[in-house]
Amino acid sequence: MMTTPVDPAKSSxxxxxxxxxxxxxxxxxxxLESLVAQEGVHFETIVVDDGSTDHTRDIAQSIAxxxxxxARPLYPGWSGKSNAMFSGAQHAxxxxxxxxxADTVHKSGSLARSLEEAERFGVALLSYSPxxxxxxxxxxxxxAVIFSDLACTYRPKDVCxxxxxVAAANGQYMLILRDKYLEFAECADVRASLLxxxxxxxxxxxxxxxxxxxxxxxxxxxxxxxxxxxxxxGWTKNLALLFRNSGRLAFERLFEFVAIIGGAASTVVLFAHxxxxxAILAAAVASGLYTSSFIRVRRxxxxxxxxxxxxxxxxxxxxxxxxxxxxHQRGEVMWKGRTYDAQSRSLAG
Length: 349
What we know:
By secondary structure, the protein is of the alpha/beta class. The chain has two domains: 15-130 and 170-225, Spore Coat Polysaccharide Biosynthesis Protein SpsA, Chain A; 136-153 and 227-335, no CATH class. It contains 14 helices and twelve strands. It has helices spanning 28-36, 56-61, 80-91, 110-121, 137-153, 156-159, 178-184, 188-191, 196-206, 228-242, 246-272, 276-298, 304-309, 314-330, and strands spanning 15-21, 43-49, 66-70, 96-100, 104-106, 125-129, 131-132, 173-177, 211-215, 220-222, 333-335, 338-340. A hairpin with a 2-residue loop joins strand 11 and strand 12 (338-340).
C-alpha cells in the first residue's frame, strides 16, 4: 500500500514520528525528507523545537507533512531531551511512537518494516543501533572502540532476553507503544536521565514488558558528530552513564594500549640486540593482545581501516571515560547549551 504522512481529516495514524530538535539546522532537512518519503504505513511527523536559536524551526516548517510544535517549559527534574520527547508524545495521535534524532536518515520502507517487526515479536519497544557515518581517522578509530565496548556491555541477545536484567535502547531510533511510554515518562529515573533511551528500556523491562534491540543498519544511518568538540562533549555526557565502572575501564584500555605498543617496540629493540627468545616472547604478547582487541572491536561493525587502527585510539577513549566520570562527579555536564548536575545521572545496565 502506498501511504504517507497523515491528513488531519483522516483517522488516527498508526505511528507518530517524534523528532526532538535543538539547533539541528545542519542535519534536520535530510532527516525529515527521509521520513516524509516513507510508505506502507499511516503516520504523522512531529518536530519538537526545543528552544532552537538557529534555523531549525524554519527548516522543519518548510517541509510538507511535518507538524512543528514547541517543547513545553523545562521544569526542574527534567532533562532537555526527555522534556522534548514528552512534549511530542502529548501531541501525538498514533498507537506507536517513533522517537528519532535529527541526525538520522531513514531508508526507504524502514518505518513499515520496523512496525511489522515490533508486532511480529510482540514487543513494547523496538530500538535500532543505526549504521554510523564517521569521517576522519581519529573519529573512526575512537568510535569503533566505543561501540565495541558498548556491544560487549549491552549485548543485543541479552537485551532481548526477558530472563536477563540488562536493558538498552538507542534514542536515535525507538519505536514504542505510546501508552507504555506515557506510563513511565514522568518517572524520576526517566525524566531526569541524560540516558533517556536506556532509562525507558530499563523501566519497561523491569515491569515485564518485552523489548527488542539490534543493529539497524538496514533501516537507519546517522552522523552523530561533525567535529571533535561535538564528539568530546557528546561522549562526556554519556560514557560515565553507559559504563558503570568507567574509571576501571579507562585504565584497562590504557594498559591494553601500553602493552600492545610497548610489546611491539620491545620486539624491535630485542631483535636488534639479538635477544631472540625474549623478542619472540614480546612479539607473542603484543600480537595476542592486539588480536584480542581486534576481535572485540570487530563487534562494532565498523570498516576494516577503523578496526585495524582502533588500537591507537585507546588512550583517547580512556581520556573521554575519565573526563566523563569527572564531569558527572562535579555536576559539570554540558550539552546543547544546558548544564546538568548529578541528579541527571542514571544507572547503566
